[in-house]
Amino acid sequence: MRPDSSSSFGERGSGRRPEHPGRRPGRRPGRRRWRLAARYTLLTIGALVVLAPLYLTVVSSLLPPSALAERPPPLFPLDPQWHDYAVAWSQGDLGVYLRNSAIQTAIIVCGQLVTSVLAGYAFAFLRFPFKRALFVVFLATLMIPFEVTLVTNTQTISELGWYNTFAGLTVPFLATGVGTFLLRQAFLQIPRDLQEAATLDGYGRLRFLLRIALPLARPALAALGVFSFLAAWNQYLWPLVVTGSGNGVRTVQIGLKLLQGTEVSRTDVALAGTVIAVLPLLVLLVVFQKQLVRSLTAGAVK
Amino acid sequence: MADVAFRGATRRFGGRPAVERLDLEVADGELLVLLGPSGCGKTTALRMVAGLEEPDEGEILIGGRVVNDVEPKDRDVAMVFQSYALYPHLNVEHNIEFPLRRRGVDAQRRRQTVREVAASLGLQELLARKPRELSGGQRQRVALARAIVRQPRAFLMDEPLSNLDAALRLQTRADIVALQTRLGTTTLYVTHDQVEAMTMGHRIAVLDHGVLQQVGPPHALYDRPANLFVAKFLGSPGMNALPATLEGTTAHAARVARVARVDGGHVPLGDDGAAAAGQAASLVVGVRPEHLALSPSGTLEAKVLLVELLGADVHVLCQLGDQTKLVVRQDASAPRPAIGDGVRIVVASGSVHVFTGGSGARLGGPG
Fold first, then answer.
1. What is the span of the domain harbouring residue B108?
2. Are B102 and A199 inside 8 Å of each other by CB?
3. Shortest Cα distance, chain B CAs vs residue A204, angstroms
4. Is B85 in contact with A199 (Cβ distance < 8 A)?
5. Domain count across chain B
6. CATH class (in words) of the domain with range A84-296
7. At what angle do helices A83-91 and A94-125 cross, to 10 degrees?
8. What are the extents of the domains in chain A?
9. What are the mean pLDDT values of chain A's consecutive 10-residue runs (302 residues total)?
10. Distance between CA B66 and CA B61 in Å, rounded?
């Protein structure tokens, strides 16, 4: 409690000038500028920490092998070696791997969107027995790391004969507790009046979902799409376990690892491959940046 | 268009009745106002007609047909929500058009109907806008447009004016009455605002704790309230209620004296009132503020607690004795007392309503 503002009435005439109400003592424009500078310094440092590995990867992929060995390595490629990208692409079969990754990611993203929308809708709008308990079970799956179920899942996949198939790669990831939770929350934001108005206007559950609920939950859908895309694209352990050589459903992350093991065992080529593998993600992030930020700050301000 | 009826309709929430054995008929083309305080069950009653709540007992009829098992979309009623419930991602045109799309109306006809309805409500300039770009009054009109576009058998309006500012509310009130008169569509209108009820309704049904208290034309409810609740709820401010005892020791004596003793003095009972009062063990007399006046010849002695100037009128809040308070309405041109003044109040003859002390039921009075 600040006595200067709360009791200024009683102190009239005591020689003290009453403080301007609502203004913190000692808050001057100079101080504000200093705070701004400090904030931007922190943000810049943060950005550097995040971007430095990416930058070093891109730079190193363009350096000749001799320069890579230098300590410290150069921070700018004076003579960019673009042909490393061509080598990585052709020698490492990156085209095939990228295609496989794209198919795998597309199946997982679509699957997660569909199952999350339907389950989220049920948890938000329908009344059924054990709804709360079931939802808790759904949430509990968030606490279980994927590694815990790895062995069981591998067995199941191989018993189903799905080893080295897209089904094996994707089916365990077609439903997600996070997505269900995200969309349930988004659907709960929709006022009940809107649903009732749609009911009276003749729109059943499915039509309400498609015509009203989904358009209104678009930010959440986009966020879920981006997150599941990132997770699916970056998967390493599971594709490693359920795919083998031959028939070829291996994804790009495995392909990168293999690139280092082949005759082109060159760091610059491997890094060029990495950059190629990251490009789709970067494009996605740039395109969906707005939705991503909005979903992260959702609920922060009304 | 159709008549709407409740037959013993009951709806409970967690065992507690929200609406209890409601019997009410709304004639074809009538505007009936469901009036009552928050939580009195008026919205629940409305939602039962819409099909958004199922009655636990009793029947809901639309056009003479029991609709308890009819889906909301097949009841052919349109509802205007308190929040307007406009679809935020659709522009005004698509919002209005929305109910028509499900009815297999072809695009050409849809567009024409939407334009006609929009023009009738002065919305033609706003068709391309999203709801968030509209003012409260405009949203309200879009909600009305969406309701009338499909020409339903009945309108259900759930406090449609409560989110508007005072001036706009006055305007929209008149607009809705004009619209309803023009279309002649049976309308159930829910409000807690008795002024709205008095000015809009062909008839008013007053609800309290889920129970229908009285139904009738506005003036009938105002002039002959069936009980103390209706008496106090209608009118601004409502009727003054004064606990009373009879002058004299017997019913006969009371009839002869024709006065009731209250805190701070006595009030004259009319012939009718005196006769009625004689039957009851405990009494409450009711007098509307406009039937009271400050005058040195008054029969009630009181102290002024508050003087409120409302423009043309002045409300004088007075205390009688220890417990009872009452409001006197007087003309703004009359001399105004000061707070703390001792005053005398005269009660206009033939204006005293008599209620039982227990249930508050009306025993007698003017009208």
1. 4-232
2. no
3. 9
4. no
5. 2
6. mainly alpha
7. 80
8. 30-81, 84-296
9. 39 45 58 92 95 90 81 81 85 87 96 96 93 92 88 92 92 92 93 92 92 91 89 92 79 85 72 89 84 63 38
10. 4
